[in-house]
């Protein structure tokens, strides 16, 4: 945990300074490493989120006692026995690939944009030091969320219109067929229906998401070890036994990484949760909106239809807020439970995101923090 190398002892006993990794220059990150990082994080997040698919089980809806059959693995096992192994490529793989692709676009865009806004983040090193300020990470997350909302628009349009009875009843033989036919049916206008809400939700949500994650795992971690290890003079050790070069315990940083993932998930839900409630109300009118769009070809009439849907949604939201006593009570009434469900998959994705990002970084000279006569080495 601690080394006693006196060669790097500082001369100013009460100063607090930060040293960058090295004076040498490092190669810039390439797009392939960013894409690999984004795909890895998105894949873990998509797979782990499937573990919480209990809500689609009718036994859960009926509040029956939990059993193996109610788990995701139990559901999958039963589906394979009932429909054969073709069930996996026809029904499971399509949404899994879609979620992975959208997540990969999000994480890759964020890394690329952050490198443009914060030059040290563009270098291929394992630890970015000094870390990017929250304003930069929020801006990169905001733009990445906007890009993701554009890519996810067709997938969101299919998801909100999906009814299990269409598959179970034989109308569509697979998710592939459903995606193709439904996209052809609703067209570009149907795909973009409600996209304004998605744009606000994703851009603001992911801006706060990445800003919180980066701040907790970097600035908060550095502040903690500076305060903790910089206070060793409280031990009143004899001068000849003073420890001058310190290396933080290896378990501290992973703890902050885990806390950062949880904090980022909670902060994201502060934005996503209320927007999701509003979107749920808006999506109830999509069937009528799709029908009107098929009957009215002029773009001006289509826009008027969308505006009318937004106005109707606002009126219904206001009625709900009045019913629950205030906008805050209605918008955050199930916030805690939904956040708990989101934390595991989101945190797992962020941890893999950070580990893979460091995996593609080059070895660099350690960054150091000098405080109260001590040199704290960051690896």
What report would you give on this structure?
The chain is mainly alpha-helical. It is 67% helix and 5% strand. It contains 14 helices and five strands. It has helices at 31-49, 58-61, 72-83, 87-117, 119-122, 134-161, 164-168, 175-191, 195-229, 252-283, 286-295, 299-324, 327-331, 335-359; strands at residues 2-3, 16-19, 245-246, 367-371, 374-378. A five-stranded mixed beta sheet has the order 1-3-5-4-2, covered by helices on one side. A hairpin with a 2-residue loop joins strand 4 (367-371) and strand 5 (374-378). Helix 1 runs antiparallel to helix 14 and helix 6 (134-161) crosses helix 8. The N and C termini lie close together (12 Å).
């Amino acid at each position: 945990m601690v080394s006693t190398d006196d060669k790097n002892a500082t001369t100013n006993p009460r100063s607090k300074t930060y040293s960058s990794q090295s004076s040498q220059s490092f190669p810039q990150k390439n797009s392939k490493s960013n894409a690999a990082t984004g795909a890895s994080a998105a894949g873990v997040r998509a797979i782990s989120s499937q573990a919480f698919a209990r809500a689609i089980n009718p036994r859960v809806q009926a509040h029956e006692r939990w059993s193996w059959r109610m788990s995701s693995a139990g559901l999958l096992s039963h589906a394979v026995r009932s429909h054969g192994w073709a069930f996996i490529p026809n029904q499971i793989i399509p949404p899994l690939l879609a979620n992975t692709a959208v997540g990969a676009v999000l994480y890759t865009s964020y890394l690329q944009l952050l490198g443009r806004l914060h030059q040290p983040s563009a270098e291929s090193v394992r630890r970015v030091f000094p870390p990017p300020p929250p304003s930069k990470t929020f801006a990169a997350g905001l733009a990445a969320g906007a890009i993701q909302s554009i890519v996810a628009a067709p997938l969101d349009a299919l998801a909100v219109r999906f009814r299990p009875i269409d598959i179970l009843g034989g109308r569509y033989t697979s998710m592939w067929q459903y995606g193709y036919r439904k996209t052809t049916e609703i067209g570009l206008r149907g795909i973009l229906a409600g996209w304004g809400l998605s744009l606000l939700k994703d851009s603001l949500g992911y801006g706060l998401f990445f800003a919180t994650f980066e701040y907790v795992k970097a600035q908060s971690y550095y502040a903690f070890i500076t305060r903790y290890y910089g206070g060793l003079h409280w031990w009143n050790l004899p001068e000849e036994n003073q420890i001058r070069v310190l290396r933080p315990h290896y378990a501290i940083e992973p703890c902050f990484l885990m806390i950062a993932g949880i904090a980022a998930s909670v902060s994201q839900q502060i934005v996503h949760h209320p927007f999701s409630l509003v979107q749920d109300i808006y999506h109830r009118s999509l069937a009528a909106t799709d029908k009107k769009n098929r009957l009215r070809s002029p773009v001006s009439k289509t826009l008027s239809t969308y505006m009318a849907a937004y106005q109707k949604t606002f009126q219904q939201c206001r009625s709900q807020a009045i019913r629950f006593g205030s906008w805050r009570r209605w918008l955050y009434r199930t916030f805690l439970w939904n956040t708990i469900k989101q934390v595991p998959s989101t945190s797992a994705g962020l941890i893999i995101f950070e580990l893979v990002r460091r995996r593609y970084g080059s070895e660099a000279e350690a960054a150091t923090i000098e405080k109260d006569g001590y040199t704290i080495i960051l690896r």
